[in-house]
């Protein structure tokens, strides 16, 4: 039966009208993976030399045992962002004499065919056989190999479980990413914990207590079984539907957005779109990572001018507007025809976009307030660029949205995905990033930077206060291009 599943998936691939494009992408990805494989293999082969240079006063086994768990932590972070969910169209098989457990086992086991599962063996096993094997013997080597395999299985199925849960509730992904970021920050920035010490506490003990190998084995099996149960419980469409109906809440139940009526309802639905889909969610995650962008400038004495504060403030408070907004209205490409015939006012649709950008930009501005540690002028500049982003950049993004005719597939990841990217996106990024400096630059050269900052703030505030006027302008512009946009979105 497994061969039948594989045969059906191959036929579906070759019979797809996008086969040529898929093959080209797979060839490029294959070459990239081969290049990465060669680099990781070289790093694994010379890992003893690398550790000897980094830790000249320690036995090689000590830093080696200390980095394994750190690797798996970053591995989990990369899996959450890049690892694809294995899929199988189970509906055609549900009425056939195929057991439910067999379908679920096929889905669960096919998830192990990920290139992420190869890297730890390529990276760590050369060191184990070169350094640990001669001194410790075959049993200890076997314990290390099985432990690495156990943590690899655990990471594989934990990432898949979190991504599947995120498809239902986008907050799962954000909370998971935040926890990982706090763990990493707690070690490397705040020094509250030591990941290296925790890693050595386990892998160092393996040298004298190989029975501890049972811990990663149990963790891996438990996470596999948890995935198995989750897939089994959600195999049938009616199960999924029943679950969603019982736990459904109106989008206007979001306290902040409920006060905006239909506009708040539309904004809440778009927030769900952002959180539940891979590519849109990556725009939000990238924005959160940009919150550390100020550390590059403010902790370095070489970047002390106000121009750097303008640049950092614009990106940190407006990166979501730039990154997510450049594909507007491509995020709604799959149901854009429905918007054309729906009774929803397009003015409300535009206002919902404004509300979405304002809400997320406000959250990002609040997250940047700790940079006041570097001086009140930093915080004031961030606020000025926040006004610019919600008052000017939002309008510019929505103006260019009426000229974007490229659809997006929300189910696809963001890594190496150029779908929807065209000249419009490149043209859009230029005025978004350059315009503030066109205003600020002349005054900075004349030694009057405060006037430049005040002018940026005034223009941004004017954009916010005249938003209703710009909504009408954008609505009129949209009506002249709506059918052209819809026709572009229909081309797959």
Question: Can you put this structure into words, describing what you see?
Answer:
The chain is mainly α and 492 residues long. The chain folds into two domains: 22-246, no CATH class; 253-490, no CATH class. The chain has helices at residues 2-15, 19-45, 47-54, 61-82, 100-110, 119-136, 138-168, 170-188, 195-206, 214-233, 237-247, 255-258, 261-276, 278-289, 293-298, 306-325, 336-341, 346-368, 376-401, 423-445, 449-465, 467-490. Helix 13 packs across helix 18. The radius of gyration is 26 Å and the shape is globular. The chain crosses the membrane at residues 23-48, 60-82, 103-125, 137-158, 170-190, 202-226, 282-299, 311-333, 354-373, 379-402, 423-445, 451-470. It holds the Pfam family DUF5687. Keywords: Membrane, Transmembrane, Transmembrane helix.
DSSP strand tally: 0
Radius of gyration: 26 Å
Provide a count of the helices. Answer: 22
- Overall helicity: over 70%
Q: What number of domains?
A: 2
Oligomer: single chain
Mean pLDDT over the full residue set: 80
Strand content: under 5%
H and E string? HHHHHHHHHHHHHHHHHHHHHH
Outline type: globular
What would you call the structural class?
mainly alpha
What low-confidence regions span 5 or more consecutive residues with pLDDT below 50?
A: 237-252
Q: Span between N and C termini?
A: 33 Å
**Largest sheet at a glance?**
none
């Amino acid at each position: 039966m497994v061969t039948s599943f594989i045969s059906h998936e191959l036929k579906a691939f070759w019979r797809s009208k996008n086969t040529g494009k898929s093959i080209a992408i797979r060839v490029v990805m294959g070459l990239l993976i081969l290049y990465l494989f060669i680099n990781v293999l070289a790093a694994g082969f010379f890992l003893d030399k690398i550790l000897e240079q980094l830790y000249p006063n320690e036995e090689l086994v000590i830093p080696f045992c200390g980095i394994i768990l750190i690797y798996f932590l970053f591995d989990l972070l990369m899996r959450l962002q890049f690892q694809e969910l294995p899929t199988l169209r189970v509906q055609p098989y549900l009425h056939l004499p195929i057991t439910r457990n067999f379908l679920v086992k096929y889905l669960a086991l096919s998830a192990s065919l990920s290139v992420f599962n190869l890297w730890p063996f390529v990276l760590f096993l050369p060191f184990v056989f070169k350094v640990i094997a001669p001194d410790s013997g075959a049993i200890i080597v076997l314990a290390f190999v099985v432990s690495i395999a156990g943590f690899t299985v655990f990471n594989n199925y934990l990432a898949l479980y979190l991504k599947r849960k995120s498809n239902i509730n986008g907050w799962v992904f954000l909370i998971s990413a935040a926890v990982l970021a706090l763990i990493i920050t707690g070690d490397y920035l705040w020094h509250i914990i030591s990941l290296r010490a925790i890693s050595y506490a386990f892998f160092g003990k393996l040298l004298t207590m190989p029975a501890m190998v049972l811990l990663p084995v149990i963790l891996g099996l438990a996470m596999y079984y948890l995935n198995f149960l989750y897939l089994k419980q959600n195999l049938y469409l009616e199960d999924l539907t029943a679950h969603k109906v019982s736990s459904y809440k109106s989008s206007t139940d979001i306290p902040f957005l409920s006060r905006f009526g239909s506009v708040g309802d539309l904004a809440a639905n778009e927030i769900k779109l952002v959180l539940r889909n891979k590519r849109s969610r990556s725009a939000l995650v990238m924005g959160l990572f940009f919150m550390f962008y100020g550390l590059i400038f403010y902790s370095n004495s070489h970047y002390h001018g106000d121009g750097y504060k303008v640049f950092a403030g614009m990106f940190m408070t407006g990166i979501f507007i730039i990154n997510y907004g450049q594909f507007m209205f491509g995020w709604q490409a799959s149901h854009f025809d429905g918007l054309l015939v729906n009774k929803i006012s397009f003015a409300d649709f535009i206002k919902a976009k404004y509300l979405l950008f304002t809400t997320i930009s406000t959250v990002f501005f609040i997250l940047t307030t700790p940079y006041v540690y570097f001086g009140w002028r930093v915080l004031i500049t961030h606020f000025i660029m926040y006004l610019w982003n919600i008052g000017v950049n939002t309008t510019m993004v929505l103006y260019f949205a009426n000229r974007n005719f490229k659809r997006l597939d929300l189910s696809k990841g963001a890594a190496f995905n150029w779908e929807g990217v065209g000249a419009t996106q490149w043209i859009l990024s230029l005025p978004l990033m350059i315009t503030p400096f066109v205003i600020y630059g002349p005054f900075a050269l004349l030694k009057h930077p405060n006037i430049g900052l005040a002018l940026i703030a005034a223009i941004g505030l004017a954009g916010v206060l005249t938003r209703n006027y710009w909504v009408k302008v954008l609505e009129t512009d949209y009506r002249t291009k709506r059918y052209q946009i819809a026709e572009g979105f229909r081309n797959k």
